[in-house]
Design brief:
The complex is a heterodimer of chains A (300) and B (428). Chain A has 300 residues and is an alpha/beta fold. Chain A folds into two domains: 197 residues, HUPs (Rossmann fold, 3-Layer(aba) Sandwich), CATH 3.40.50; 74 residues, no CATH class. In chain A, 31% of the residues lie in helices and 15% in strands. Chain A contains eight helices and ten strands. Chain A has a six-stranded mixed sheet with strand order 3-2-1-4-6-5. A four-stranded antiparallel sheet of chain A has the order 8-7-9-10, with no helix packed on it. In chain A, a hairpin with a 2-residue loop joins β7 and β8. Chain B is α+β, with helices and mostly antiparallel strands and 428 residues long. Chain B folds into three domains: 213 residues, P-loop containing nucleotide triphosphate hydrolases (Rossmann fold), CATH 3.40.50.300; 84 residues, Beta Barrel (Elongation Factor Tu (Ef-tu), domain 3), CATH 2.40.30.10; 105 residues, Elongation Factor Tu (Ef-tu), domain 3 (Beta Barrel). In chain B, the strands form four sheets. In chain B, strands 7, 8, 9, 11, 12, 13, 15 and 16 form an eight-stranded antiparallel sheet that branches. A six-stranded mixed sheet of chain B has the order 2-3-1-4-5-6, with helices on both faces. The longest helix of chain B is centred in the middle third of the chain and has 15 residues. The chains are: A alpha/beta (300), B alpha+beta (428). At the A-B interface, α1, α2, α6 and α7 of A face α3, α4, β2, α5 and β9 of B.
C-alpha cells in the first residue's frame, strides 16, 4: 500500500499547518493583502484551513494610492465574499503626516513609502503576526527567509541572526512590541501557484489574464497608461494585448505581451518563461540587493 | 525559441524531494547547485544576466555559478554562504527543494536547520583533500537528523586527472568512518561541478565510473517510505468551533498527521486525558476523506464530546507512544552566548505541545571527528553535539527519533531571549 501525496498536496498541507500554528500561537494575527495572486491564494488556504469556521484573520491592505483600479475592486469584492474584516493603511496619509516621504524625480515610486505606513498599521492595531504571500523563489533575499520571521520593535529583519527553524516546529515566542512576518507559501514556485489556482478554480482579478489596454514602453518595460502613468514626450500610447505576472503599483509593474486568456494558457506560458516574474519590477532593479535593503527596514 | 509542450497532468502527479547540500568552504557547493539549476534549465535569463554582470564586476574568469545562490550582501562580499538558502527546480520527473547550507563551522546550526526537513543529503568532498573534519561533521549531522539518503559527491575530479584511484581512496576512507553512523543508504559519485561532469550529464572523462549521474539519482531515489505510516499520531493544533447556527455543535480537531493512518470508525485515545472514542469523520475543507496519513493536514471529529485541545494528541487505541516527563536526547546546541546549563530551565516545544523543562544531566559531548563519547568533557557550546537528560513540567507523548522525526524531535528555547537554542532528537 502506497501512502504518497503529490507535491501540490504536500505544499498545501504545509501552508495550512503554518496558518493553523499562526492562529494558535498569536493574539492578533492578520493577512497582508496586496491584491496579488499570492495573497489571494493565502485567503483561499485560510478558508480551507479553518472550515467550517470563518477565517480567523482580518485582511490588511497597504494602499499606495497608485494601485490598479481592478486591484481595489477585487479587494473589496473578495473581503465581502469571505466575510472578512478589511483594514486599509494609507501611504498618502503617511506622507501627509510626514512619516513617509514622497520620492521625487522621473522614476519616483511609492514602493519604499509603504514601509512606514505598514509599521504604523501594525502599531495601531497591535498585530503580532502578519502573514504574507512572499515566496522564496521570487527573489534572492527572500530565498533566505524563514516561515516564522522575527521582527524587532522597529520592524527590522536581521538576516544574519535568524532563528533556526527545525522540522515543522515554529517558535513564535517574542517580547512585547516585537512581531512576526509569516510566509505560509514560502516553498511554492510561480508554477505551483498557477497549478493550484487551476486545480482549485480560484478567482483572480482580470489583469492576470490577457486583455487589450493602452500602454507605453518606458526603459524597455511595458506600462499600462492610467491616472498614475502618463505618456511623456517621445512616448507613444498604443493598444497592446498584455497581461501581468505580478500586481504591484501601476507605476512600477511591467506588463507582458501575451495572448494567455485562460488559466491553461497561462500555465503553458509560465512553464516556458525564460524570465523570473519579478524580472520586470522596477523596484527590484534599483540595485543588486534592493530587496534585502528594503526587507531589513521592515518591507514585506 | 524552442518551446516544449508542458504536461500539466504529469506535473500535478510529481513527488517532492527535499535535499540539503553541505561541504567545507570552497568545496564548490554553490557551484554545484548553480550547475544543477543551469543544466536543468532552471535559471532564468534575467538571473543569468545578473550573475554574468556580477561575475564581470568581480573579475571572475568564468561565469561564477556560485553567485546564483549567494543572495545576501555579505555573502557576495565574502564569497561564502552564510544562511540557509532555499532553491527550487523541477525536472519532468520530480520537483526539488534544495536547502543550500553554509559549510563554515560557525554556521553549523543553519546546516542542522536545512537537514531537519531533508529526505536526502549531498555531502561534497574535495577530491584533492579527501575526507576532512567538516565532511565528518556534516555526515554526523545527516545521520543524527535521520536523513534517509546520503550522496557523497567527490568534487573537483578535474583537478586530480579524473583518477579512479583518488575516488576509491576517498570512498574507502569515508566508508570506514561511516560504519559508525546510522545512515542506511549511501552513494558515491565522482563529479566536476565546475565543468558539469556527472552532475546532469554523464562524464566523458571517467569511463571507469559505471554508476548514475547525480541528477539521475535525485530523480529516482525511492522516498515514499520516508514517513512513518505505522504508528498513528495526531497532535492537535487547534480546535475548530464555528459558533454558527448551521454548525452549532461542530467540534473539529485540526492538525497534521505525524504518523500512521487514521480512518473513520477507528478507536482512538486522546492523550493526556486517556479518554477513548471513535473517529466520526476525517475531513478537509468540508470534504470527507477515506483516510489520512503523514504529512496530510486534516480535521477530525470524534463520536463523543471530549475535552481536548492544542497540545493534546489523538492516537490509535492500542498503539500508544511513550509517555514520560523524563527524556533522554541528543542535542545540537545553537546558542551563541551560553553553553548547555545543568539545572538550567528552558522552554520546550514538542509537536504542538509547549511546556518547560530542566536539564538534569549532560551525559557526554561527542567528538565529531571520531564519534568518541567524551564523558569527561561536558561543555556543550555553540555547534556542539551531545547527549542530555531532561525533565519536563508536563508529560510528553513521543516516539524515538529514529522511528518518527515528528514525534521524536523537540526544540529548547532560552526563556530570557526567546531564541531557539537546542535541536533535540529523542533516543530510543
Amino acid at each position: 500500500m502506497a501512502y504518497n501525496i503529490n507535491h501540490l498536496n504536500e505544499l498545501e498541507s504545509e501552508a495550512i499547518y503554518v496558518m493553523r500554528e499562526v492562529a494558535a500561537q498569536f493574539e492578533k494575527p492578520a493577512i497582508l493583502f496586496s491584491g496579488g495572486k499570492d495573497s489571494i491564494l493565502l485567503t483561499h488556504l485560510a478558508k480551507k484551513a479553518f472550515f467550517p469556521a470563518k477565517i480567523p484573520f482580518p485582511l490588511v491592505h497597504i494602499d499606495t494610492g497608485h494601485n490598479f483600479d481592478e486591484t481595489i475592486e477585487f479587494r473589496d469584492y473578495l473581503a465581502k465574499k469571505l466575510n472578512a474584516k478589511l483594514i486599509v493603511g494609507s501611504v498618502q496619509e503617511a506622507i501627509d503626516e510626514g512619516i513617509a516621504t514622497e520620492e521625487q524625480g522621473v522614476n519616483a515610486s511609492r514602493n519604499v513609502a509603504q514601509i512606514p505606513a505598514l509599521l504604523k498599521a501594525i502599531e495601531h492595531h497591535q498585530f503580532d503576526a502578519l502573514m504574507g504571500g512572499a515566496r522564496r523563489d521570487e527573489e534572492k533575499a527572500r530565498a533566505k527567509e524563514r516561515f516564522f520571521s522575527h521582527r524587532d520593535e522597529f520592524g527590522q529583519w536581521d538576516p544574519k541572526n535568524q532563528r533556526p527553524e527545525l522540522w515543522n516546529i515554529f517558535n513564535g515566542r517574542k517580547q512585547w512590541g516585537e512581531h512576526f512576518r509569516i510566509f505560509p507559501i514560502s516553498n511554492w514556485t510561480e508554477l505551483d501557484v498557477w497549478q493550484y489556482i487551476a486545480k482549485e478554480n480560484i478567482e483572480l482579478p482580470k489583469t492576470y489574464y490577457s486583455h487589450v489596454r493602452p500602454c507605453i514602453i518606458r526603459n524597455g518595460t511595458i506600462l499600462a497608461v492610467s491616472e498614475h502613468v502618463q505618456a511623456r514626450e517621445g512616448e507613444e500610447v498604443k493598444d497592446m494585448q498584455i497581461r501581468f505576472r505580478t500586481m504591484g503599483d501601476a507605476t512600477i509593474t511591467g506588463a507582458y505581451e501575451s495572448d494567455a486568456d485562460t488559466i491553461d494558457k497561462i500555465i503553458q506560458e509560465v512553464a516556458s518563461a525564460r524570465e523570473t516574474e519579478r524580472g520586470n519590477r522596477a523596484d527590484d532593479k534599483r540595485s543588486e540587493t534592493a530587496m534585502e535593503d528594503r526587507k531589513k527596514e521592515g518591507y514585506f | 525559441m524552442e518551446q516544449e509542450i508542458f504536461n500539466a497532468e504529469s506535473y500535478s502527479k510529481m513527488e517532492l524531494l527535499r535535499f540539503t547540500t553541505a561541504g567545507s568552504v570552497d568545496d564548490g557547493k554553490s557551484t554545484l547547485i548553480g550547475r544543477l539549476l543551469y543544466d536543468s534549465k532552471s535559471i532564468f535569463e534575467d538571473q543569468m544576466e545578473a550573475v554574468k554582470s556580477s561575475s564581470e564586476r568581480r573579475g571572475d574568469e568564468n561565469i561564477n555559478l556560485a553567485l546564483v545562490t549567494d543572495g545576501l550582501k555579505s555573502e557576495r562580499e565574502q564569497g561564502i554562504t552564510i544562511d540557509v538558502a532555499y532553491r527550487y527546480f523541477s525536472t519532468p520527473k520530480r520537483k526539488f527543494i534544495i536547502a543550500d547550507t553554509p559549510g563554515h563551522i560557525q554556521y553549523t546550526r543553519n546546516m542542522v536547520t536545512g537537514a531537519s526537513t531533508a529526505n536526502l543529503a549531498i555531502i561534497l568532498v574535495d577530491a584533492r583533500h579527501g575526507v576532512v573534519e567538516q565532511s565528518k561533521r556534516h555526515s554526523l549531522i545527516a545521520s543524527l537528523l535521520g536523513i534517509p539518503h546520503v550522496v557523497i559527491c567527490i568534487n573537483k575530479m578535474d583537478l586530480v586527472d579524473w583518477s579512479e584511484e583518488a575516488y576509491n581512496r576517498i570512498k574507502n576512507d569515508y566508508k570506514q568512518f561511516a560504519s559508525k553512523l546510522n545512515v542506511k543508504d549511501v552513494n558515491f559519485i565522482p563529479i566536476s561541478a565546475l565543468l558539469g561532469d556527472n552532475v546532469v550529464n554523464e562524464s566523458e572523462h571517467m569511463d571507469w565510473y559505471k554508476g548514475s549521474t547525480l541528477m539521475y539519482h535525485l530523480e529516482n531515489v525511492h522516498i515514499s517510505n520516508d514517513h512513518n505510516h505505522i504508528d498513528s499520531r495526531f497532535p492537535i493544533q487547534t480546535v475548530i468551533r464555528p459558533h454558527s447556527d448551521e454548525y452549532h455543535d461542530y467540534r473539529g480537531y485540526a492538525g497534521r498527521v505525524a504518523g500512521g493512518v487514521f480512518k473513520k470508525g477507528d478507536a482512538v485515545t486522546v492523550l493526556p486525558s486517556g479518554f477513548v472514542s471513535k473517529i466520526k469523520t476525517v475531513e478537509f475543507a468540508g470534504k470527507e476523506l477515506d483516510e489520512a496519513y503523514s504529512p496530510m493536514a486534516v480535521t477530525m471529529t470524534l463520536e463523543d464530546n471530549i475535552d481536548a485541545g492544542r497540545g493534546d494528541m489523538i492516537v490509535r487505541t492500542g498503539n500508544m507512544p511513550e509517555i514520560s516527563q523524563d527524556i533522554d536526547a541528543m542535542v545540537c546546541w545553537m546558542d551563541e552566548k551560553n553553553p548547555v546549563r545543568v539545572n538550567g530551565k528552558y522552554a520546550i516545544i514538542h509537536t504542538t505541545r509547549s511546556c518547560r523543562c530542566i536539564v538534569k544531566e549532560i551525559v557526554y559531548k561527542m567528538d565529531v571527528n571520531n564519534l568518541h563519547k567524551m564523558e569527561d568533557d561536558k561543555d556543550i557550546s555553540l555547534n556542539d553535539i551531545g547527549r542530555i537528560k531532561i525533565r519536563t513540567t508536563q508529560p510528553l507523548f513521543f516516539d524515538a527519533y529514529n522511528r518518527n522525526r515528528f514525534t521524536g524531535s523537540f526544540i529548547l528555547i532560552d526563556e530570557a531571549t526567546n531564541v531557539t537554542v537546542g535541536a533535540c532528537m529523542i533516543r530510543s
